[in-house]
Amino acid sequence: MSSVISFRETAKVYRSSHLGRTTKKIGLIDFSLDVEKGEAFGLLGLNGSGKTTTFKLALGLLTPDSGTVKVFDLSPKTRSFYSRIGYVPELPYFHSFLTVKACLKFYAKLSGLSQGDISANLERVLWETGLVAHQNKRISELSKGLSQRVALAQATIHNPDLLILDEPMSGLDPLAIRDLRDYLSRLLEDGKTIFISSHSIFEIEKLCHRVGVLKEGRLVRVLQRKDWESSSGGLESRFADIIQNDPASKALLKNSIQ
Amino acid sequence: MKKIWVLAVDSLLENIWNRIFILVAIFGGLLIYASLLFGILAVEQELRVLMDSGLALIELVTLISGLYFSATLFLKEIETKTIYLILSRPLNRLQYLLGRVLGLILSLLLIMLLMSLLHIVLLLLHGWSWQNSYLLSLLGVFLEVFMATAVAVFFSLFSTSSVAAIVFSGSLWALGNFTPEIRFMTQKSSGLATIFGRVVLFLFPHFELLNWGGHYGSSVLTGASYALLYSSVFLILSWLILQKKEL
Predict the structure, then answer these.
(1) What range defines the domain where residue B238 resides?
(2) Interchain contact, B14 vs A112, CB within 8 Å
(3) ipTM exceeds 0.95
(4) What is the pLDDT of residues A129-183, one digit of tens each?
């Protein structure tokens, strides 16, 4: 398999200044990872562990302080491959006055689709995300679950090869989560690559082929599906062990602090 | 170019939908109506007072709207994460900036159009007959506001507070109306005061160049070229900041 996203010893430190005092916060440190074509890779970690920073670096929204980031073998500063990426940030906002259809058309146009492709892709994505019956509703009329479907629809309207999803299940009810998981599974069957973060370990466990555990900006462990399937407590207990007790991850963190 | 236009229309629609925009339009209408009252007070010069106060109010309302829209634009887009959804598409930050600024220009033109229509109706009701110089005055007002909003866009990109961006650019606009006086004082001063005065004159906008009917009258071409150049400098600086900005 070939790498779709590749991080090599990537580091990102956030600096903020106030009244001449500069404070630093580690976003990501010594981060190396390859996300392979056609796989679903999950990122797990506590709040502030570096999940969103990882995604922003891949999208070129942040620049690494050291190391490299490559997407489709190119630097994120090269914007030529962006038509191959779909992104859902955590709790995205859409103009409340737009209808679902108008909102998706807006993002389709920004993705560079032709008028003909917009109509065809709009029809496809509305059907795939179950939004056909809601296409003429305003965003302000939608429930949280339906809004999240719009978020997924805008990310897939241009039929990208790679989906980057930051907490897409946040705030969804169980049925909406099931629908979302089914949709993502279908995308995987179509050969798409999914790079996802979520606090819903149960969903990550079902969807992902591999999972990376982030702790304080460092990737402390990458687990294969067999690792958690062979564990009695599943992924949740493996994750808790790594975060709380794992000596290897503690040693890694100690080294990085030093 | 198509993507820039898509972004511009999106900004325009958002501003039209925005209640503040509607409130500003109503506010402008009410203020122009109030200028009628000034007209009644100045019986002999009623038409002139109505013309001058109306144009001044159009400028003020457009300026307030422009500063508000531009100072909150990027901060709001970052806060709502809309900017992430846009910049994760195949378009660069320059296209993004141009699209949003074009949307801002369209919004300001729409506000001015609505208010000036109201103003013209009021003037005609008071026996005014059409003069092409009215359009020139509006062009001057628009260019003046555009210069101030270009400055506000620039400040908003490295400020974490939209209030600070509004105060900075609003102050620059206010002082830009006094550049003839600043020039006079610079000529009369010496030493450090002269250097300071020259720096201020270099940085501050020279709005007297847009006062085509006034005492400092310059040609329309000179004034418009100056306004576009001044705004372009701030927009280029904004682009350079946006290129490096960590989102």
Answers:
(1) 2-244
(2) no
(3) no
(4) 888 999 999 999 998 888 889 999 999 999 999 999 999 888 788 888 888 888 9
User: Whole-angstrom Cα distance, residue B148 to residue B113?
Assistant: 19
Contacts of B106 (CB under 8 A, 6+ apart): B8, B9, B11, B12
- Min distance A235 CA to chain B CA atoms (Å): 31
Check B90 against A87: CB less than 8 A apart: no
Cβ neighbours, 10 Å, residue A22? 8
B247 in contact with chain A, both atoms CB, cutoff 8 A: yes
Contact A62 B247 (CB under 8 A): yes
Asked if the Cβ–Cβ distance from A61 to B247 is below 8 Å, we say: yes
CATH 3.40.50.720 fits A3-90+163-257, yes or no: no
For chain B, the domain total comes to 1
A-chain CB neighbours of B80 within 8 Å are 93
Phi/psi at A118 (5° precision): -60, -45
Query: B193-216, pLDDT tens digit by residue?
Result: 888 888 888 888 888 888 776 555
Q: What's the length of chain A?
A: 258
Chain B interface, best mutation among A82, A110, A114, A115, by max B CB count within 10 A? A110
